[in-house]
Amino acid sequence: MHKMAKVIVDVPSRETDRPFDYLIPESMSGWIEVGSRVGVPFGRRTVQGFVVSLHDQLEMDSSRMKPIDELLDLLPPLPSDLVQLAAWMSRKYACSMISALQAMIPSALKGKAERYIHVADEHQREEERTSEGVLFNSQALLGEAEREIVAYINHSGSVTMAHLSARYPDRIEVIKNLLGQGILFESQAIKDRVRKKTVKTVAAAVSGEAAKEALASFGGKARRQREVLEFLLEVGAPLSMKEVLSTLRVTAGTVKSLADKGYATIEDVEVFRDPYQDRHFKATKPLERTPEQEDVYRYLTETLDDHRHGVFLLHGVTGSGKTEVYLQTIERCISLGRQAIVLVPEISLTPQMVERFKGRFGSKVAVMHSRLSTGERYDEWRKIREGRVQVAIGARSAVFAPFADLGLIVMDEEHETSYKQEETPKYHARDVAVERARQHGAAVILGSATPSLESYHAARSQSNDHFAPMILEMNQRPSGSRLPGVHIIDMREELREGNRSMFSRALHQGIAQRIERGEQTVLFLNRRGYSTFVMCRTCGYVAGCPECDISLTYHQKSDNLRCHYCGYATPAPSVCPECQSEHIRYFGTGTQRVEGELSKLFPGIRVIRMDVDTTSEKGAHERLLQAFRDKKGDVLLGTQMVAKGLDFPDVTLVGVIAADTALNFPDFRSAEKTFQLLTQVAGRAGRHQLPGEVYIQTYMPEHYSIIHSSRHDYHSFVREELQHRRTLHYPPYSRLILVTLSHEQLPVLLRMAENFASELRGRAQRLGWYGDLDRLTPEALDILGPVASPLPRIKNRYRFQCMVKYRGDLDAVTLVRETSAATMDQLRDASLQISIDVDPQMLM
Ligand code: ADP
Ligand code: ZN
Ligand code: ZN
User: Fold this and answer.
1) Separation of CA 408 and ligand 1 centre (Å)
2) Has residue 60 been placed in a domain?
3) Which atom of ligand 1 lies nearest, measured to the CA of 320?
4) For residue 308, what are the domain limits?
5) Any idea which positions bind Zn(2+) 1 (predicted)?
6) Mutual orientation of helices 223-235 and 241-248 as an angle, nearest 10°?
7) What whole-number distance in Å separates Cα of residue 832 and Cα of residue 576?
């Protein structure tokens, strides 16, 4: 019998990042498990928490230990392996346990305590008698206002504080008084954000002889009731109330009378919100594997069949049939009675991808999509937790899909940066996937046409501390179509020839040709190169956020300017606040400007624009793609959204408007990202019978990332890029930890950041780790900074950063975590925040 539970409470602070002990009340003892969600008293509040371990013995004086208040779910939302995974995450990413646990459950279950008001027992009795006309005791002493409130609460059983103060806004004092006198009292309970959805169903409660008797008993007046019963008997299964009412055109009263007589039952039955219920997915069958696919499939299924843990890097050119391999491997996994997770970048969680999985596995698939409502997401998650589906597809957080017997995790486009979460817990889904698969003895497939240098290097060197995947290659397209021909266009040359348009002559001609032939074009614009700021043409004033050192973004719909970091908003100015000039204007998004230029150059051209503005509404993404597929557009124009996963047979031309906008970013991965993006975009052209062409417009035509991507030459690119990385000691030849310190006052921050950095250096020195990475030692650690962060001020807080760069088997995360804790303890400044980003992806 478990007597005590250790609970991680939902109180985010450094001091509370440890388990707290609670007694298990006898009534709950059979129900509480590791992973259970509970409401527990904490200080003077009730908070949500997760049970992380159970104990038969009491470790300390139990009189000081408080019992658990409530158990919030019958089935624990977290299986115990996820609780273990959270502990691993907390070590690996220096994050708190609670932040790791919260990342694993749907937001619907992030309950908050509600305060409920009840009437004290003795006063309840009195009120009952009052309603019978007997008035006495303290009740008689209450004024009219008090009595009304007590009667109201008594009638409702209990009400929330929020509800009560909304109903009696001018009687807060009266309510406080009643609380003070002990006539009312307060309790707290955790309230979830969404409820399970139910529908009323009706079923016959009689059968056989009894049914005959019942039918015979209805006189003429009860003719409608008789009809309902006949119908229920005929169907022989529960029906939704709605269906009964609409089919028979009867009222709910009729059905209720039938139920009152005991001939039918009405029940609330739990249902799952299904975001895809109105969509039809065409069923597909496995294709006969090509020889390349066969090789890959054999490796994968051998591992699956043996119940072994294994990581595979599936490097296959765009259109080489990777997705088909995923589908067939998942099918094998399901047939072995195990489950599979498919991770895709949020951006490519397009209808096309969902369609392929739904088409093959139908209702066995749950889709976890950020565009779903909180309720829909909760229900998809419950299908997984309750074992009603075998496959989960979703963006990075789907790596936590609570399957009981996970056999396979597929990560498509494994190089995508969106697999790294930029908020706490700052985890990378690839590393989490490998760890989860290790727990379950499961296989991992990392698929990409352009694997990340980290994964590729890990596979090649077989020495990475975390995982060493096996490389599987696919170089051909099953359709027999060839990779498209890629032309690099030097935009400096265009300018010299007098062409000032954003379209080169070649691309212009290419688009014209496609319109003529009735073929389609995809135009890609790197979003990062353009912004949507407001600038004065006369004096150069740029509207900036007063709290953060960044420019404000113009929002067309609301005609205001907003800060993307703190949410500050202000109406768009019509004259410059600095010089009163009227030439202050909004520099449209890149895509809007390209759209404008296209209509000027090609009158009557049909452009489908896909960017943040046009896809913000639910379902807009799907509609736009369907319109393009139905050939209602000549050109699909967009940002990253058009680069991934799309497969349209009539697209024969892809144009990249400005390939190098990302190359100038101060990020050591900018060449890699450019190479990946160009390769992806180029892969959209000529995927079927018609051959494809790609035009890459650039001001840096000699850059190796552009040259190698134009030749579809991943290996040459990697060779050259790895050389740069090795020289500069960047990943994969080192690992990074980015520490950002922030404070409201700049001079204070400066001092604290110096303090932190020297403490860190001192500790590293004492461990014998600190030194120059240029020395040829297998282990080394260097600390850069402190320097102002690339975004030096956000939400009125100044930011400084230190970068820890190290190689070898050093536990640098613990070093940084302990130094950060020591600094906080020593400085005791409530305004100071230290954030740790292990293996950072965004250096901006
Ligand atoms: P990738 O995921 O590598 O981009 P896909 O799986 O989308 O590639 O395959 C590209 C195209 O080739 C798709 O239209 C797909 O239906 C087709 N395809 C894949 N495998 C086969 C096969 N074994 N036989 C015939 N066609 C195939
Ligand atoms: Zn001005
Ligand atoms: Zn701001």
Assistant:
1) 20
2) yes
3) 3
4) 291-473
5) 536, 539, 576, 579
6) 120
7) 36
Q: Is 287 in the pocket of ligand 1 (CB under 6 A)?
A: yes
Q: Which of 674, 709, 727 finishes a domain? A: 727
Q: Are residues 216 and 93 in the same domain?
A: no
Q: What is the pLDDT of residues 606-651, one digit of tens each?
A: 999 987 777 777 778 888 888 999 999 999 998 877 776 677 888 8
Looking from the CA of residue 474, the nearest atom of ligand 1 is 3
Looking at the structure, tell me whether residues 676 and 545 fall in a common domain: no
With b meaning 16 or more CB within 10 Å and e meaning fewer, what string describes 238-247?
ebebeebbee
Decide if 453 contacts 722 (C-beta within 8 A).
yes
pLDDT band at 464 (very low <50, low <70, confident <90, very high): low
User: With a 6 A CB cut-off, is 288 part of the ligand 1 pocket?
Assistant: yes
* Helices 97-104 and 80-93: angle between axes, nearest 10 degrees: 130
Q: How far, in Å, from the CA of 549 to the mean position of ligand 3?
A: 7
Which secondary-structure segment (H or E) carries 705? Answer: helix 704-710
Q: Say how many C-beta atoms besides its own lie within 10 A of residue 75's C-beta.
A: 13
Q: Which ligand is nearest to the CA of 577?
A: 2
pLDDT digits (tens, 9 = 90+) for 378-427: 889 989 998 999 999 999 999 999 999 999 999 999 999 889 999 999 99
Ligand 1 atom closest to the Cα of residue 326 is: 6
3-state secondary structure 522-556: EEECCHHHCCCCEEECCCCCECECCCCCCECEEEC
Claim to verify: residue 94 and residue 241 sit in the same structural domain: no
Q: How far is the CA of 569 from the centre of ligand 3 (A)?
A: 9
Task: Please choose from 282, 323, 646 the residue to mutate so as to test ligand 1's pocket, defined by most ligand atoms within 8 A of CB.
Answer: 323
Binding-site residues = 536, 539, 545, 548, 563, 566, 576, 579
Domain count for the chain, please give it.
7
User: Same domain, yes or no, for 786 and 800?
Assistant: yes
Q: What is the pLDDT of residues 197-211, one digit of tens each?
A: 777 888 888 888 888
Better-scored residue on pLDDT, 808 or 370? 808
Residue 583, Cα to own-chain centre: how many angstroms?
41
Residue 279 domain-assigned (yes or no): no
For residue 415, give Cα distances in angstroms to 343, 410, 433, 687. 12, 13, 14, 22
Q: Kindly give, in sequence order, each residue whose CB lies less than 8 Å from that of residue 676, ignoring residues fewer than 6 positions away.
A: 415, 450
